[in-house]
Amino acid sequence: MRRAALWIILALALSSCSLRARELTNLEPIETLCITLNDGRVKIIACAAVRDEDNVPLVFQMEGDTVSDAVEKLKSLPEGKDAIFVHTKNILCDTRYCAERLDELKAFLRGSAELKKSACVFCADDAAALLDKIREGEGDISADLEFLADKSAKNEVTRAHEVCESGRIFAVGEQFGSVIPLGAERF
């Protein structure tokens, strides 16, 4: 009887481990979020930490009425995976979005414990085009933004929690397939 109970407990423990492993393989960590406006709706382009066979980041897109709405929809990807933002390092916003919806961005950042802790916030004129141009040149925008955040002076690059307080966001552009710093902008 004891032996049977031990086998049942062991079987339950092993099945629990395999369920957790399966759950982990269904997670898609997002490195960079790109936020733009598209006909009055918010469009999110998410670059995953996972790369395809050509070492290009997987990219997912979603639209919503607000950034929170679009990100919530993005959490359940059509491929049966769930986007997670615990490893998100960069948020790239279109300057038009920042100018028109800064309060919405601030509310989103305040409500996101994961993003507020470590993500850097950047803005660019036509951020989606910048993202496409860098991807076409086979550059990695996540790596470029992370490099820029690490190498810039601490007071230049804006962390998510600082955007909520100051409305100041570090602007970037593109040159020769790489992200270049342009300086801070106040919205």
- End-to-end distance, in Å? 71 Å
SSE pattern: HEEEHEEHHEHHEHEE
The structural class is: alpha/beta
Inertia-based shape: globular
Radius of gyration computed on alpha carbons: 19 Å
Mean pLDDT: 78
Mind describing the biggest β-sheet?
9 strands, mixed
H/I helix tally: 7
Contiguous uncertain segments of 5+ residues? 14-22
Count the beta strands. Answer: 9
The proportion of strand residues reads 25-35%
Helix content: 40-55%
Brief rundown of the structure:
It is built from 7 helices and 9 strands; from the N terminus they run H-E-E-E-H-E-E-H-H-E-H-H-E-H-E-E. The protein is an alpha/beta fold and 187 residues long.
Describe this structure as you would to a colleague.
A hairpin with a 5-residue loop joins β2 and β3. It is globular and about 40 Å long. α3 packs across α7. It is α/β, with parallel strands linked by helices and 187 residues long. The N and C termini lie far apart (71 Å). Strands 1, 2, 3, 4, 5, 6, 7, 8 and 9 form a nine-stranded mixed β-sheet that branches.
Keywords:
9 strands; 187 residues; 9-stranded mixed beta sheet; 7 helices; alpha/beta; 44% helix
Annotate the secondary structure layout.
Elements (H helix, E strand, L loop, with lengths): L1 H24 L1 E12 L2 E11 L5 E8 L2 H8 L7 E3 L5 E5 H16 L2 H6 L1 E5 L2 H10 L4 H11 L6 E2 H7 L1 E8 L2 E9 L1
Parallel strand pairs: 1-4, 1-5, 5-6, 6-8
Antiparallel strand pairs: 1-2, 2-3, 6-7, 8-9
